[in-house]
Amino acid sequence: MREFINLTLGGVITGAVYAAFALALVLIWRSTRIVNFAQGAMAAITTFIALSLIESGQSYWVGLAVALLAGLVLGAVVERLVIRPVEGGPELNAVIVTLGLFIAIQALISVLFGVNQRAFVAPFSTIGFRVGDSSLALSPNTLFTLGAVLLVMVGLTALFRYTRVGLAMRASAFGQEVARLLGVRVGRMLTLGWALAAVVGSLAGMLIAAEVTFVTPTYMDALIVFGFVAAVLGGLDSPVGAVVGGLLLGLLLSYVRGYVGDELVGLAALAVLVVVLLVRPGGLFSTTQTRRA
Amino acid sequence: MTRSSRRLVGLVAAATVASTLAACGGGDSGGGGGGSEENEASDVGITEDTIRIGAHYPLTGVAAPGYSEIPTGVQAYFDYVNANGGVNGRQIEWIYRDDAYNPTNTSQVVNQLVLEDEVFAIMGGLGTPTHNAVTDFLNSEGVPDLFVASGSRLWDDVEEKPTTFGWQPDYEIEGKIIGQYVAENFPDAKVGLFLQGDDFGEDGAAGAKQYLEDQIVAEETYVPGNTDVRPQISALQAAGADLVLGFNVPSYTALSQLTALQLGYDPQWFYSNVGSDPALVGSLLARFSEGAVSDASLLDGVLTTEYIPTVDTPDNPWIQLYQRVWEESGQEGELTNYRAYGMSQAYTMVQALQAAGQNPTRDDLVAAVEQAGADWEGPGFAPFRYSEDRHAGYSGMLVSRIAGQGSEELTPVLVTDNGDAEIEEYDGEAATPPESGIPDEEPVN
């Protein structure tokens, strides 16, 4: 029973981590209709900037603030300089550009910060809470991770649903020309979408780093795959879907690891992806058929 | 023979010399011979005054921490030998390339080493999946493939891989020695296995099970790259294992320790040699010691095995030699266990080159290891198992307990072999390095 409880709690935690990553993907998808394969590398570089600050004696919170700020700038710069020239062209062009960006940024991290594994100390204790004489796989730091992910989810939902900016962003992504005719400054909205997504991505990078404990320039690679599966599972359009998708995937993979075997984790994720795409291509939380303007 | 002008620097210049030589036709002189002969270019990668050795290592990526230090140790020792006249008057050229622990890259860089750099032999290629990708190529090209840096049993296959040789004790005999130790000293322990999901974990577990079949209560594997080991550690905890044997790499030693701490799980840990380097694991865990983890090393009291001297024994004559060699080489950083490992391999390599004779061919080098290797005295605690029928490396090791940054020996050196072979105490003396620090082996022919 204790194993089941710990596998469940562990699944929720890794699920929250997948969800954090999926949220950034959803944000960019909603605001620009591009799937950003460079998301992981962008998050990794901001995390390394923060880690360097933390290692030089700054507090975690200073590191976090700098990481988020760096993400904001990085997202905006990438959109203006790299993505803008291919926006509006065939979708595949933008996807290939983000793949190239992924490789380039990862190489840049190696150049700037070296390739060695580095320890990332979580902001709160990672020692599990004790119940009776046994420990749960639930610690103050995992509560922090969960809380941060839920906060972002609520924030994004509110942004898109209740604010004019959110509406304008959705309009820009949905139909650029229509939006422009209605007075939306589409270019700005696209830049804003990328910048915000990179901020969420940076937060995800920080949360994930604390969970995986040791980071290298490629530490996000394994999570990119699961983040994508989580996003597709929940529906690329829905922040709530991303979080639910992440949690479901985290639970499933944790049970697979604990009861079946670590070697089947990748296969299980693939199975989820195939089933979702066959049965409900829009994801669990899609409300409408795919729309095109 | 004229040397082509040296354009560019370093490797490129060296490669040019080698290709000029190859064009001149490195004739097969029949190898070997007494000290009075002239040096000649007896095979690919050998000139009158140089001999070129190559290798592949993970210099970047997840496997790089620790392992990327090995070639610097090799470099230091070869530099030392070169400064003292080289081997048979030849300077050793040491070329190593980065494969990032990715077998696809390994194939590519080894192709480069053999076809472009034209090395005489490969020495100390690191990793099981990586090196396994190139043994067919090396054997079909007839390139000596000495002292693979992995404890897999794949390298001991004279029929299929006549030029490939292992070096360190294989994981199966390590598993046997660990298994017997646990069975004798912890007869009531419930044993859990924490295994890397490849032949490292499988061979180790197979060896341990010969002695522990009845005591094992759980067997958990991880796939390298999956950084979440909570499910595995939870399962070991749930099964009630109070002694965990880990056949894992160092970063998973660190991860399993932290995860166990988070789960309040405190069994006796026993990590195989590969995963237990206290300095590397300690450096990974160091930042955690400021907060949750107490100041004492997390690895204190952990059991492990040793088969060559380690840097925490500064009085060991081999370590004193290595310390001197390392300081003379002037490279950055300290002497680490990984660098000592590289130097130990380089020492064996020099023995092999000496035994191969003054003007060796590649075949002579292979024959020299087969004929003389079992008698070589060197840093290893136990003898090699080399013969014309066997290409297996060291035959034994001892069990020790980590204490702080050092360790204490718990058993004498134990030697055994694969399969049902008995485990016995080694009755030989520990070798000390020669005064000069350089071996002096007779040519076998």
UniProtKB/TrEMBL annotation, chain A:
Membrane topology field: Multi-pass membrane protein
Provenance organism: Geodermatophilus dictyosporus
GO molecular function: transmembrane transporter activity
Top-rank lineage group of the source organism: Bacteria
Record protein name field: Branched-chain amino acid transport system permease protein
Residue ranges of the TM segments: 6-27, 34-54, 60-82, 94-115, 143-162, 190-210, 222-252, 264-283
Stored InterPro entries: ABC_transp_permease (IPR001851), BCAA_transport_permease (IPR052157)
Major localisation: membrane
From TrEMBL, chain B:
Regions of compositional bias (Acidic residues) in chain numbering: 419-428
Residue ranges of the region described as Disordered: 419-445
Keyword Cell membrane in annotation: no
Signal sequence region: 1-22
Leucine-binding protein domain: residues covered: 50-403
CDD domains: PBP1_ABC_ligand_binding-like (cd06343)
Keywords: Signal
Keyword Signal tagged: yes
Family stated for the protein in its record: Belongs to the leucine-binding protein family.
Protein name according to UniProt: ABC-type branched-chain amino acid transport system, substrate-binding protein
Natural source organism: Geodermatophilus dictyosporus
